[in-house]
Amino acid sequence: MDLDALRHGRFAQLGEAIADWEEMTKKLATLREDARNNLKARADKANWAGLNAQVGREFVDKTAKEFADAHVQADSITKILKDTHDELLGYRDQLNETLGRDPYKYCTVIDTGHGTFSVTGNPRPDWVTGPSGDTSPVGQQVVNDLRDEIQRVLSKATESDSTAAKALRLLVDQSAYGFSGAHYENRDDAAKAIADADRMAEILAKDPHAVTSTELAGLNAALARYKNDPLFAEEFATQVGPKKLLTFWAGIADPYQSSYAPDRAEQAKRLQKNLGVVIGRATFSDSDRMRSWKNQVIGLGPGQLGTDDANNPTGYAVMSSLMRFGDYDDQFLNQYGDKLLAYDKKMNGQGINAWVNNVNQGDLNYWNHEKDRGRDPVTGFLEALAHNPDASTQFFAQPGGTGVTVDKDSEVNDHLKYLGRERVWVSDASLGGGHDHATGRDALGRALEAATTGYPADASPKEVAAGDRRTAATAGVMEQVVHLYGGEDGPKMLHGQPELADSLGKMAGAYIDDLDYELSGIGDHGKDAGDFPARYGGRARFGNQGAIDFLSVLGQDERSHKAVTAAQHLYTLSMLDAHPPTSDAHMNQARDIMSVGAEARGILDNSRVEQAATTYGENSEEANKALGRSADWKKLLVGSVVAGGVASLPLPGSTAAAVVIAPVAADTITNAANTLLGHAIDKATDDAESDALVPSQMSSRQFYGRGVDDLGSVYDSYFKDHPTAREAADEQQWIQETKSSYLGTGSHENDYRGRPPYKD
User: Fold this and answer.
1) pLDDT score recorded for residue 672
2) Which of 56, 132, 258, 702 holds its CA 20 to 30 A away from the CA of 241?
3) DSSP code of 418?
4) Is residue 593 pLDDT above 50, yes or no?
5) pLDDT tier at 351 (50, 70, 90 boundaries)?
6) What CA–CA distance (Å, rounded) separates 511 from 453?
């Protein structure tokens, strides 16, 4: 800042700008509330249909968010401007007070431009001379002291002005269109975030082997503290630069280069996560600097980094290891993934795996390291998709749009076909991790969970309580999954990719209402949207046979069988809760609900019996043990949470923290404990606490008997307080109809329409 600009500054225009911004912030607050309480609230309650169901609601949601972000950004700008204005006024007053103070007032101070100035001493006038009559200029020490005092004030004013300008530029540039939503209470917070980012970037500028454990700890602390700060994230990422970021992590991750302190590995593990989170936050910025940064990272992907660390890895390998953590910009993830898979297709399946081989000993992953050393960049990228549902939905989007049943491979996304059918997956386990598990396939399943449910694959019950996040786009991905894994090659794909079984079960559970709808008609005719209403716009279309085939394939695996069976049970109970036997209309709906639920359960159970017999031998001890384990599916109900129109069922034994998300009837949201659904959850919990025994071995006859008994219990519970309605149902042969729906469907080829059991 120039001296005269501060000394003579009136800052009137800045004050006017602040007043304008304050007024704008107030107006935007009103618009934000109106958008939230009127526009969005009404849209949420509206019964959307057709094209509006796919794009209208999403547009309204984004518009409401933009008003909220606009208010937040305006508030931040106002506060930064006001703080800077007040500080500059204070520094101006300090400067002028200093220049008018004795003996400084006898000096001449001249602004020489570009932030420089000169100070000279003047002769004192006669009337201020001392007894000696000395009128000589003030001493050089006074000149020096004044110069230092002016420089101190001017430096602080310059810092206030420049840091505010930089913060405002970073803030506004976060979003090329619209508003970023970044918020700061004052200029100091924004300036400190930027300064700390620069300070942390200096650590990454060092040779990673020269970085001390103390420095690593400080770096981790700062990254964790600023993990949600957009200005810190962008400044840090751009100051470090793409290549230095990648080579630094390769050097820190490589455990073979130096003798480290005992806690070095733990610090490295934390750093992998913290770097991933902060870099992910930075990718949301649309500034010129960050657009260039993202392009450079993608450009570095296929080439080796030219480092002695971690076996001189490619950019893809290192970046993918970092993006296992954090929320990333959807467009960046999709561009990165497109390039990565295009490169991977050239390298995959050529005898020796390009990524995982005896030559490559460059470990890059500290999380679940025993099963995943981090050498395969596709695994890390898929983990990024698993944590970024919108990006995953886009990456696996149905080509040509949604709204039709997928019945041929040309209607399946190329990425999904390649990863599900064509790619050669190998284990990336360490010596003690076992080589019968390909973590990459598990990551694929988790990415598809995110793509189809709209939730991160490791979402907690508390997060899922936000409600149903399915859309026409997520349904479009699910339609492709059903086509692939319910198709003719479905049994072979499931048994060849066992790591996907739990994920496929979770996906089917999330769409159990749409699967039941497909089962409700006669073939593809007479389906009952009244009994099985769409819960979101653009519901999934599988076709009657597609739903049957998919369920019959999932029934073959113990894990997927359990997940879908539990989801089906809860959905059926919730629908019965919503239609108590108090009217003929409710009774008619309940009859269809029971029948379709029994059919779905029959497909799953029959498929499980047939697969156990095929795998182990009919009525063999191992087959009976398998059925005994499968009959224990009610344990999944323990700890279930019902909120927001969905039930969250903990999924024990999965490779990561996970829940099955099952849709339930909206009427069961309130007081779920007093419903059939609530009683079922309580009963499962009580049985678990009392250590209720399910036989360790169970014949197919016993297995089916337990299935029929479950349906009978539901029947009894539904009519418990309605004897007259029960008499009517008995006369209408509901029992025989429900039992027939269960026992008369299954996976027997030709006879029962589903896919046959898998044979080696």
Assistant:
1) 59
2) 258
3) I
4) yes
5) low
6) 9
